[in-house]
Design a protein that fits this description.
Elements: H1 4-12, H2 18-21, H3 25-42, E1 44-45, E2 57-63, H4 69-73, E3 79-80, E4 83-90, E5 101-104, H5 112-119, E6 125-128, E7 140-145, E8 148-154, H6 155-160, E9 164-165, H7 167-170, E10 174-176
Helix pairs in contact: 1-3
């Protein structure tokens, strides 16, 4: 796997094109999260014996009330590793059964324990956006920082789900457990 696309995405976090100047901070934040999520997926390997490993498409579920979901929905139809990305909104964690990635909105924070318990040990990359997600059993947390998105990764939870996260990505993140 190559590192340049990830570095480009992370460098992009400080980039302010003219169109971004007219956007709200929250709107821009979700565009950045979508870009980072796209590149994170490039650095994850699903188990070889899992149906999640080589489906014709990579399904990304969106769970909860995402203020600027259209920014994440821009990933729909993009191609990665010869497979199309399909983004769909879901209302229950059980609906993520055919997803390889589940983005859990901050609106789901009160029930995050129930959600991660439902998905425990399943090869579904769980990604969220609120402080403490990785410490509470989530795999990847995208936290907005000063002109950037900070990544927190729970390597142990990902390993239990038999997901392999590239060491190149781990170098760029705060890794749990410490």
């Amino acid at each position: 796997m190559k590192l340049p696309p990830l570095i480009l995405a992370l460098c992009w976090l400080g980039w302010l094109p003219a169109q971004c100047l007219a956007q709200s901070g929250a709107e821009r934040e979700y565009e950045l999260k979508a870009a980072v999520l796209y590149h994170i997926i490039e650095y994850v390997e699903w188990p070889k014996d899992s149906p999640s490993n080589q489906p014709p498409a990579i399904r990304i579920g969106l769970l909860g009330q995402i203020p600027f979901a259209e920014a994440l929905e821009l990933l729909d139809g993009k191609t990665m590793q010869g497979r199309k990305l399909l983004v769909k909104k879901i209302s229950r964690p059980q609906d993520a059964a055919d997803c390889q990635v589940l983005f859990i909105s901050a609106s789901e924070k009160p029930r995050v324990s129930e959600i991660v318990s439902e998905l425990k040990n399943r090869p579904i990359l769980t990604v969220s956006e609120f402080e403490g997600f990785a410490e509470r059993g989530g795999m990847v947390n995208l936290v907005a920082g000063q002109n950037r998105i900070n990544m927190e990764i729970n390597r142990e939870v990902a390993s239990q789900a038999r997901l392999s996260i590239s060491s190149q990505l781990l170098k760029l993140a705060k890794v749990f457990p410490r």
